[in-house]
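PROTEIN DESIGN WORKSHEET
SECTION A - STRUCTURE
LENGTH: 271
TOKENS:
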């Protein structure tokens, strides 16, 4: 019997793209899945688009707006899968996204996470902007603490649903929520990847840089999470330096706000 894979899709004002995202799941070569869509208080016709699809494997919820973390938590609380992964409502799953990762789990049953290649595309999917392929095998926790890009694009990990693990996003967190989530579940567990495409990431113009305060709050949360998880002082200080540099430069270069850059520098030093 095939393993069940839960695909978690938060949707907020996603009417323009959510239909294509759902169709990409329906087109998967692997059929044993459930798609849990959480309409997170959309004000456009996201609901109407979703309801056009009729498939018993699609589970649909509506809730007042709670942000991406709240929407994912709703789906995580009801999922039934042996494995689970995330798909944003404006992205697409290539046809073998599920099957290639499930096969990797089958071949290496000691794995808890399987990732894969990500293709960045423009909004209408007519152009490839960038290709990301992980380069790490092993326990990913230390890689994440160092903010390396060897194993974290974003929400592309397929996760084995193991007992006694709490799968929950920090409520209200708007940035660095993926990093925080994977840090909370990765210690002592193993990661690998496939070279197949697992996600087409659609660049629509939205960016974390449009809300640098939210990004800073996300990194502060990550710092305290890592501290609570008991990493070495050396690793913690390294993380602090990385966060301080990222935020100072983001305020200076992206926001062109030198005053906030200096203030952010001193806020990070007080961590």
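SECTION B - SEQUENCE
RESIDUE ASSIGNMENT:
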């Amino acid at each position: 019997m095939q393993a069940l894979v839960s695909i978690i899709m938060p949707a907020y004002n996603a009417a323009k793209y959510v239909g294509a995202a759902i169709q990409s799941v329906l087109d998967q070569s692997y059929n044993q899945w459930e798609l849990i869509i959480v309409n997170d208080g959309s004000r456009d016709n996201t609901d109407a688009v979703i309801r056009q699809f009729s498939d018993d494997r699609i589970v649909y919820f509506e809730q007042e707006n709670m942000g991406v973390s709240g929407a994912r938590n709703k789906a995580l609380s009801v999922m039934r899968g042996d494995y689970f992964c995330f798909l944003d409502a404006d992205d697409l799953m290539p046809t073998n996204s599920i099957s290639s990762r499930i096969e990797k789990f089958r071949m290496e049953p000691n794995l808890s996470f399987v990732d894969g290649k990500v293709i960045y595309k423009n909004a209408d999917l007519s152009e490839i902007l960038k290709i990301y392929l992980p380069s790490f095998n092993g326990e990913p926790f230390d890689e994440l603490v160092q903010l390396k890009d060897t194993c974290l694009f974003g929400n592309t990990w397929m996760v084995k649903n193991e007992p006694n693990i709490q799968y929950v996003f920090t409520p209200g967190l708007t940035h660095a929520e993926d990093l925080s989530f994977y840090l909370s579940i990765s210690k002592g567990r193993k990661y690998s990847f496939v070279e197949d495409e697992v996600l087409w990431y659609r660049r629509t113009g939205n960016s974390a840089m449009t809300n640098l305060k939210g990004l800073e709050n996300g990194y502060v949360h990550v710092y305290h999470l890592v501290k609570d998880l008991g990493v070495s002082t050396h690793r913690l200080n390294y993380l602090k330096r990385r966060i301080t540099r990222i935020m100072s430069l983001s305020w200076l270069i992206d926001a062109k706000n030198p005053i906030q850059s200096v203030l952010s520098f001193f806020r990070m030093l007080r961590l």
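SECTION C - NOTES
The chain has a mean pLDDT of 94.
The first strand starts at residue 5 and ends at 11.
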